[in-house]
Write a structure and sequence with these properties.
- The complex is a heterodimer of chains A (325) and B (533).
- The longest helix of chain A has 22 residues, at 2-23.
- Chain A has 11 helices and 10 strands.
- Chain A has 2 domains: 34-122 and 252-321, Bordetella uptake gene, domain 1 (D-Maltodextrin-Binding Protein, domain 2); 125-251, Periplasmic binding protein-like II (D-Maltodextrin-Binding Protein, domain 2).
- Chain A is α/β, with parallel strands linked by helices and 325 residues long.
- In chain A, strands 1, 2, 3, 4, 5, 6, 7, 8, 9 and 10 form a 10-stranded mixed beta sheet that branches.
- With 533 residues, chain B is an alpha+beta fold.
- Chain B folds into 3 domains: 9-170, PAS domain (Beta-Lactamase); 227-313, 2-Layer Sandwich (Beta-Lactamase), CATH 3.30.450; 371-526, Heat Shock Protein 90.
- Chain B is rod-shaped, with a radius of gyration of 56 Å.
- Classes of the chains: A alpha/beta (325), B alpha+beta (533).
- The A-B interface holds A 105-107, 156, 160-162, 166, 170, 180-181, 183-188, 193, 197, 202, 318-319, 321-325 and B 95, 113-114, 116-118, 120-126, 145, 148, 150-154.
């Protein structure tokens, strides 16, 4: 009996050894074409991030291998990430907070733990905007009025509930003492439609990415009441942050990069080196400027900690606020 | 511990099988039921979630929310769906979490608001386990997202409830089935092991294994201690057992078990003898410098030989012992007879001297010396073989003691006997025959025995004639049988041995008895011994 136990343990050890030697066997990583998955159709933020990565990494000769961008739209990123899970370390995918919230909101079984964090790249900030002729000139005024009569305040959001646009306002309202379930959200197809609805007077306010409304704000077509950043945003320094408005909240809409499960330390180190170099390039800084993104670089290790922290935050937001009646 | 293990084979097997079966079956049952019940719960969850999702998309329900009030149609559909999926209740609430439609069992009408929070705020679909509630329920909640063209809005939520009791009932039913199945397997295993134990006991003649091992050790000790050489080998010639005596007899060393007999024994004659399906009895064989008496016994099972047991005795050793024994006995006999003779003569001489008849005494001494000389002269001149001389000398003494007239017939002559006739068969043949003749005449008036020998021609002929009362025809036929004797019990081996020895020397024996005239026994031994051994 003892012998059998010993033998089976031996076999197990040998198998494990075989597995690990297999995994670490990829000496010359990367040794074939690389692939970056954009889990959305061409044209969106994820697609833009993926293509910018490909361009900068290639143009700056940081990566010798060919990089292909693959679009895998559907399920709020789930289709693309499921595809990533089935690939080896030569495939990476762009992600955002949806990789956390999809699971928390019951939209997906995938969790962020099932992937290897590579980097956090950039962030956008969220904005609360009202029509130019709105009677509310500050975020506080708006929230006060909403607290009075939540059902009468139509708020546009897109393309779905549970995204960062939506969650940022839910958190702000929640901090302000409003029961989020009383907020009257109208769900539009996308960020553009939301702004159109606001300009058309169909909604009283919108919550969306800063880049969607920044130009109209500067043009005077609408008013941005608050941004979710920790300090005033360049170009619209007059717009207060939520913290300025007395709401204790900083809400980044970040984008990052992750790989399939069980990547080796060597592979992770490779990307840490390449991406830390990339974010310092002029070309990447230009990309950030053009898209109103802010650099938000974190390496693999930092990203892992960041994801955990964000997950806790979202969990609190989604689950615990449910305890409020 | 040792004592504990000393239980019967049946208990051992039963115990082991019972423990193993219990272990395996309970493990399997436990795993299977836990998997099964998990699966049942998961199935119920899936069903509830799918149902709530389907309901949330149903045009009738969407329409009711667009209009802003519940409709008869909606209630109808909700009740129908509830019955189809076997849910215990279906609830539809609006954004304010007021009941829009309800189908199901009696209910106190209270809506737990936080159940719907995630659905109404984030548009999530999810499962809730209400384990604290009475009765326990499983709840699937889905948002009703109404499409207004430009935009969509969460207007309400659907809750589909299943009572855990009905799911548990289902699980219980499954578990019962599994338990029945494993119980029958268990009984089958017990029955099987009982039969197995019985069949093993039958094969071992009802002996427990420890008894068998004791027997085996005993047998080994016996086999090793026996003076005879013993070898057992199987039908392929593989040695399964060989004892010390066999080793020393055949001069073998090292570990021989498992080797083939052909590899170990280099005598083709012996191998030939052993390689037969018939047993051997007392076969003699020259093996190296020894003569070996071989007995073999094939082990026959269902008509074919499965092995052979061979016993070996050292003939040389036996022979030497017999020789030594007969020599000693002969010499002591002779000495005793002679001593007796001389003692009686010495008494006569002493008597004569006491009577002062010195002349007579001197005469007697001279006479005796002369007769001794003469006796020696007579047959030592004609009979030159020392072995026969020695035997006859002894018999003379014995005859003189018993007052038997023992004579060597005129014309007897014998040179040196050929080497193939050693002393011991001669002692057996001549000693027995002469003794028999002595006994035959012991009770007669005329006590006369004559011995004749001649080696003229190819044969050596011995003839012993007595004046006894002879033998019946019937008696003559049985005289050479073992155990037959006219002289009482525990005898009767004499003539059988004589005959055996004569046959070994390729000779023959004849008996003629003519009523009152006594018996003549003739032994013919060939001078040249041609038959190979």
């Amino acid at each position: 009996m003892r012998k059998i136990g010993f033998v089976s343990i031996l076999i197990l050890i040998m198998l494990l050894a075989a597995c690990s030697s297999n995994a670490s066997g990829s000496k010359g990583y990367p040794d074939k074409n690389l692939e970056i998955v954009a889990p959305a159709s061409p044209g969106g933020g994820w697609d833009l991030t993926a293509r910018s990565l490909e361009k900068v990494l290639t143009d700056e000769n940081l990566v010798e291998q060919n990089i292909n961008v693959v679009n895998k739209p559907g399920g709020g990123g789930e289709v693309g990430w499921k595809y990533l899970k089935s690939k080896d370390a030569h495939t990476l995918a762009v992600n955002s907070s949806l990789v956390l919230t999809n699971n928390l909101l019951g939209q997906s079984d995938l969790t962020y733990n099932e992937f290897t964090p590579i980097a956090t790249l950039a962030t956008e900030w969220q904005a609360l905007a009202v029509p130019a002729d709105s009677k509310y000139s500050t975020a506080t005024e708006f929230l006060e009025a909403t607290k009075e009569n939540p059902d009468s305040m139509k708020i546009g959001v897109g393309p779905g509930l549970g995204n960062d646009d939506h969650l940022s306002l839910v958190q702000a309202a929640s901090e302000f003492g409003i029961n989020p379930s009383e907020l009257n959200f109208l769900v539009y197809e996308g960020g553009g439609d939301v702004v159109t609805a606001l300009l058309g007077g169909h909604v009283d306010a919108v919550t969306t990415s800063l880049s969607e409304v920044k130009d109209q704000h500067l043009a005077g077509k609408l008013k941005i009441l608050a941004v979710s950043s920790d300090k005033p945003v360049e170009g619209i320094e007059d717009v207060p942050t939520w913290q300025d408005e007395g709401v204790d909240m900083v809400f980044p809409h970040w984008r990052g990069l992750m790989g399939p499960p069980d990547m080796t330390e060597e592979e992770i180190a490779y990307w840490d080196e390449k991406i830390s170099k990339m974010v310092e390039t002029e070309q990447w800084k230009k990309v950030l400027d053009n898209n109103d993104w802010e650099s938000f670089y974190k390496n693999s290790e930092e990203t892992e900690a960041f994801l955990k922290e964000q997950n806790d935050l979202y969990q609190k937001l989604v689950k615990d606020s449910g305890m409020m009646k | 511990m040792k004592k504990l293990l000393r239980v019967s084979l049946q208990i051992k097997i039963l115990g082991l099988v019972t423990v193993l079966l219990l272990l395996v079956l309970s493990l399997a049952t436990f795993m299977f039921t836990s998997m099964e019940s998990n699966e049942d719960v998961e199935n119920a969850e899936d069903l509830a979630l799918q149902t709530s999702k389907t309901l949330s998309y149903m045009p009738v329900i969407q329409e009711a929310f667009r209009v802003g009030q519940s409709t008869e149609n909606m209630n109808h559909i909700v009740a129908q769906v509830k019955d189809e999926v076997g849910a215990s209740a279906v609830k539809i609430v609006n954004r304010q979490r007021e009941l829009y439609s309800y189908a199901g069992v009696e209910w106190n009408g209270e809506i737990v608001k936080e159940d719907y929070y995630r659905s109404l705020v984030f548009g999530s679909r999810y499962i809730l386990h209400k384990d604290q509630d009475e009765p326990q329920t499983l709840k699937a909640i889905a948002p009703i997202l109404v499409d207004y063209g430009d935009y969509k809005k969460v207007e309400g939520a659907v809750a589909v409830e299943f009572q855990m009791k009905s799911i548990y009932d289902e699980i219980k039913k499954d578990i019962r089935k599994i338990v029945y199945a494993s119980a029958s397997v268990f009984l089958l295993g017990i029955g099987g092991s009982y039969l197995l134990a019985r069949s093993i006991r039958k094969d071992t003649l009802g002996l427990e294994p420890f008894e068998i091992s004791a027997l085996f050790r005993e047998r080994n000790a016996i086999v090793q201690s026996v003076k005879e050489g013993l070898i057992a080998f199987d039908h392929l010639g593989k040695i399964t057992m060989i004892n010390l005596s066999a080793r020393s007899l055949l001069n073998l060393q090292g570990d021989l078990r498992g080797q083939t007999i052909h590899h170990v024994i280099h005598s083709p004659e012996l191998l030939n003898m052993l390689d037969s399906d018939k047993g051997l009895i007392n076969k003699e064989l020259q093996y190296k410098d020894k003569i070996v008496i071989v007995n073999s016994n094939p082990i026959i099972e269902e008509g074919s030989r499965t092995g052979t047991v061979v016993s070996l005795r050292d003939k040389t050793e036996v022979k030497e012992m017999v020789d030594a024994l007969s020599d000693v006995r002969q010499y002591s006999e002779d000495l005793r007879a002679q001593a007796h003779e001389f003692t009686s003569k010495l008494y006569v001489i002493m008597g004569l001297i006491q009577l002062e008849k010195y002349e007579d005494a001197i005469h007697l001494i001279k006479d005796e010396a002369h007769s001794q000389n003469q006796v020696s002269e007579v047959f030592f001149k004609d009979i030159l073989d020392e072995k026969v001389q020695a035997i006859l000398l002894g018999k003379f003494a014995k005859a003189s003691e018993k007052k038997i007239d023992f004579q060597i017939e005129e014309g007897s002559s014998l040179g040196q006997l050929p080497s193939h006739i050693p002393l011991s068969p001669l002692i057996i043949i001549l000693g027995n025959l002469i003794n028999n003749a002595f006994e035959a005449v012991a009770e007669e008036n005329k006590k006369r025995v004559t011995f004749f020998v001649t080696d003229l021609g190819k044969d050596i002929v011995f003839e012993i004639e007595d004046t006894g009362k002879g033998m019946e025809q019937e008696e003559m036929k049985r005289i050479f049988d073992k155990g037959y004797s006219s002289k009482g019990d525990n005898r009767g081996y004499g003539l059988a041995n004589v005959k055996e020895e004569i046959e070994k020397l390729d000779g023959s024996i004849e008996i003629s008895s003519d009523g009152d005239k006594g018996t003549v026994i003739t032994v013919i031994l060939p001078k040249k011994f041609e038959r190979g051994m």
